[in-house]
Amino acid sequence: MAPEIIRFLPNRYEYIHEKIEGSQADVYICNDNNLERRVAIKAYIHGFDEQELRHEISVLCDGNSQHLAQIYDLIVDDENKPVAFVQEYIAGSCLSEFPQQKRSEPEILNTLYQLASGIHDLHLLNIVHRDIKPSNARFDSNGILKIIDFGISYTPQQHGETMCARGTTGYRAPELYMERPVAINNSFDVYSFGALAWYLASGRLPAALEEIPPQSTIFLESFSSLNLAIPDDISGAIDRCLSVNSIERPSIGEVRKILANCILFGRHRAELIADGKQYILSDVGKGIRIKHGSDKELSVDYDGRRFYISSIVGPIYINNSNAILNAELPNACVITLGKYEDGASRLFVSFSISHPEVVL
Q1: Which of 264, 235, 261, 240 is nearest to 251 (CA)?
Q2: Which residues have a Cβ under 8 Å from the Cβ of 165 and sit 6 or more positions away?
Q3: DSSP 288-314
Q4: In the β-sheet with 307-313, what is the strand arrangement from edge to edge?
Q5: Rounded Cα–Cα distance for residues 9 and 200 (Å)
Q6: Which runs of E-coded beta strand occur in 167-322?
Q7: Residue 166 near residue 131 (C-beta atoms within 8 A)
Q8: CA torsion sign, 84 to 85 to 86 to 91?
Q9: What local confidence, expressed as pLDDT, does residue 104 receive?
Q10: pTM of the model as a whole
Q11: Vertex 267, ends 263 and 271: CA angle to 5°?
Q12: How many CB atoms lie within 10 A of CB 318?
């Protein structure tokens, strides 16, 4: 370990002579003898940048997600200036090792869901990571994927722009190669997620993503060309993540929802209560028909991912808005059969969904 870091370490931390070298910072693995656990101590190199270190500390402190590395302590010098910080030690392999073994489609989907969840949690904190790649996501001892290395992450301001193409070739969005300022936004990470999905599923990046700028002369095939047992809506979402036009990319929250619905296929349960009677809908491909009088009827079907309106007869309302054919029903709502003018003769149906959790 660099002598200056050794000198500032509190006695509780014992360096075990294991070091991970990085382009911007080195990570030293230590024992925390007070709490009897391994920790990782990160110190920037190539000219210490206090501002970058403070920025990464603030990102880690604000994040309260199982998919983001946690910070434990701050190491300061004799003048009380930060020189390194102590963070969670993540013992497992990083995603750069993931394709070395043949992975099943469920494993790929579960990993992509965890990655999307971590990016989603960052975006909820108004943070753009800017360097999502295989070596910046690592599994802990419980198999939970955690995003690491927030050294170039950014909190977008009102006019935050960059002309600096920071990030990693192959995972960097095409607009970052333009010779004009580009507003820093969440779509950078969404593009990187799409590239990482290709890497995890095939063990390589397509040539179209590796050229500079990406997809400038080589056509990118659809993710579905990998012929995996993965639903079309996931392949379509990954294709949209890699759109050259950033406006066409989905939010990572939308991608996360699509992944969750596919992982949880057929496990949802809906309850409808009408006239004191309970109806349960949980079988894929089946539905429930509710009639009121001779001129009002509603059918709700379940396709394994969502509950949707499959037929409408007469005036039907969902939370006081007109029911729309094929529209997905919200998690909880009131369905009304009959117009407002019908008064007490209307039929009110409560609808609620029991959502299972994705098991990591």
Answers
A1: 240
A2: 172, 176, 177
A3: EEEEETTTEEEEEEE-SS-EEEEEEES
A4: 287-292, 296-302, 307-313
A5: 38
A6: 182-183, 269-274, 277-281, 287-292, 296-302, 307-313, 316-318, 321-322
A7: yes
A8: negative
A9: 92
A10: 0.84
A11: 140
A12: 19
Beta strand pairing status for 269-274 and 182-183? unpaired
Question: What is d(CA 99, CA 354) in angstroms, rounded to the nearest whole number?
Answer: 35
Helix (H, G, I), strand (E, B) or coil at 66: coil
What single DSSP character describes residue 97? G
pLDDT-based confidence at 73, cuts 50/70/90?
Answer: confident
- Residue 16 burial class via C-beta count within 10 angstroms: exposed 0-12, middle 13-18, buried 19 and up: exposed
- Give the pLDDT confidence of 253-280 residue by residue, as tens digits: 999 999 999 999 999 999 999 989 999 9
In the predicted structure, residue 157 carries a pLDDT above the cut 70: no
For residue 156, cis peptide bond before it (omega within 30 degrees of 0): no
Return d(Cα 105, Cα 164) in angstroms, integer: 36
Residue 179 has pLDDT above 50, yes or no: yes
